[in-house]
Amino acid sequence: MLFYRAALPLSPQTLSFLSGILRRHRKMIGSPWRRLNPGQHALLVLVHLRKGETLAEAAAGFGVGIATAWRYVREAISLLARSSPRLDAVLRAAKRAGYPQLVLDGTLIAIDRVAADRPYYSGKHKKHGMNIQILATPDGTPLWTSGSLPGSVHDLKAARIWGILRRLKAADLFTLADKGCVGAGEHVRMPYKGDPAG
């Protein structure tokens, strides 16, 4: 096998943050010795998630089996999801921060699926994926991301499933969104062509 040096476009703080979460989790569950320390574990996860290397490539690069790499990635994702802020807390913080508006948008995260996996196929994007809703500040800084739904789910349906529109209305926060995220009568302003805010 040949090895090469590679760079990952992330800050050292990102690695420290994730390795800290993993270290605390291992201590809490009394985890026995593992092949990779928390820092290497975090780096393997970031290589897979950010760089897009397959589990087989990441496993080979870190000297572990594919099943071990898969378990490491699943564990890290689960811990990150648990530590993410809840929507209601984010909306309260946004209200306190006094943002003039928030931005709501959906995105499709591409996944590797076969044609038989119809629920994951997005007709709009012409590929398989997972639908994620993102709430951001006016400058585009993400505040909250939803869980994932199959790619065939429309953005408006996803926003309703996660209760985003109802909570935005209750928080009385002015929000910009495209037509995919809102329907007639929703409490979210839709920019239109020529709108300076859109």
Automatic annotation (TrEMBL):
InterPro entries named among the record's database cross-references: HARBI1_dom, Transposase_HTH_dom
Short name of any one Pfam family annotated for the protein: DDE_Tnp_4
Cofactor: a divalent metal cation
Transposase Helix-turn-helix domain ranges (all copies): 34-84
Protein keywords: Metal-binding
Domain DDE Tnp4: start-end pairs: 104-193
Domain of life: Bacteria
Protein name per the record: Transposase
UniProt source species: Nonomuraea angiospora
